[in-house]
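Entry 12.
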Amino acid sequence: MKVHRAIVLLGLAAVLAWGTGAQDEPLKLGIVDIDQAIQSTSEGKAAREELARKQREAEAVVQPLIERMQEMREDFQAKRFVISDEARFQKQLDLAEVQNEIESKVAELKGQLQVDEQRLKGPLLAKLGEIIEELGKEKGFTMILRRGTPGLLYAREALDVTDLVIEKYNQKQ
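Predicted 3D structure (tokens):
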């Protein structure tokens, strides 16, 4: 899948380079680090803080279950040689039940955190996309690529337009 994307990206770059070669305009590329742009905006910082708060709340929900399982495990370890086979089997089942409860709660909370992250970052990504498009048109860029995308193996720092994107975003706010 990544190789396919890399080939498509390289093909697109070749077509654009060939298309702009027919014109007298030079090829002007830019690179933007979306993650840095998000973290540098006030909305991005607020989203990051809210996600951290939700992460702490999720950990607070799971922590009592983990403590309960540890207590049950310690109790089982202390009594495993003096209890009957039936009681030992029951305690093992109880431990497995609590383990499953923890795993399902963690999976549920992880899914909820991903939904919250998309809810918080989605509008911000859309705004940044609009700003990047405006900046590209305004400054005459042939294309602006996202740092970290498949196919982008190296980019000179001089091509980085992240600071311009952040500046333009902050001006709009």
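Annotation: The longest strand covers residues 29-32. Helices lie at 2-21, 34-40, 42-79, 85-139, 162-172.
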